[in-house]
Amino acid sequence: MSEVKRGKFIVFEGLDGSGKGTQIRMLEKKLTDRGRSVTLTAEPTDTALGGMIRDALAGNHMRTPSELAALFLADRVQHNADPKKGIISLLSAGKDVICDRYYFSSFAYQGIDTDLDWVMEMNLDSPDILKPDICIFLDVDPDVCMQRIDSSRAFTEIYEKASTLKRIRSRFFEVFERLKDIENIKIIDAARSPEEIASDIERIIFSL
Ligand code: TYD
Q: What are the chain's domains?
């Protein structure tokens, strides 16, 4: 019997309001059109742990930045290891996995308020957290992101302030610089039309 070829693990990152959802759906269609089997997933997940995190992000339950970093870590370990829906088992079954946010978000978001080295080490050194094949970062001006958030939602989460998003964007770039030799990170100018952005992403993914 021939062995199943492992799927590709593709991560999308970007500020809130950077258009990840649109690009993820466009890429999913392009991959499925080419006969690939794709699973979309996201962090925080829809598990009990993810629910605790969302409560904190909504401001309903105060958590320290370190508590949040640890909750995201636990959520990510479970997200990898779940025997049915986990990233590792999906990839082994030959599916491509597109994940909306991953450990780069922990570095950039929790990394602005707690010790960045600690957050990076516990994620990157975890034996249960898989390294993605690629991270696509959709780069949009934080002020534009904030306008999109304000016009599309009635409430905002704890990080959704222009000044905070600016600090998070700087952290993303600092982290990408630190990881440039060990991670496959592509920064995309996402201030263009969805079609232009999608065609750049398609080129990158199909040359993986
Ligand atoms: P969410 O409302 O799910 O949507 P979106 O990804 O489209 O913005 O937001 C998730 C929030 O969680 C977002 O503000 C970033 C934050 N986050 C972290 O702070 N750390 C993490 O490790 C992850 C995965 C997300």
A: 9-205 (3.40.50.300)
Side-chain-side CA neighbours of 69 within 13 Å: the count stands at 22
pLDDT value at 1 more than 80: no
Q: Are 68 and 53 in contact (CB under 8 A)?
A: yes
In a 3-state reduction of DSSP, which class is residue 88?
A: helix
Tell me the best of 11, 15, 16 to mutate to test the pocket of ligand 1, counting ligand atoms within 8 Å of each CB and taking the most.
Answer: 16
Q: Whose CA is nearest to atom 20 of ligand 1?
A: 106
Query: What pTM, to 2 d.p., does this model score?
Result: 0.97
Best residue among 11, 105, 138, 152 to mutate for probing ligand 1's pocket (most ligand atoms within 8 Å of CB) is 105
Tell me phi and psi for residue 93, to 5 degrees.
Answer: -80, 5
Token match 């590709």: residue?
8
Q: How many CB atoms lie within 10 A of CB 15?
A: 30
| C-beta of 174 in contact with ligand 1 (< 6 A) | no
Separation of alpha carbons 54 and 157, rounded Å: 9
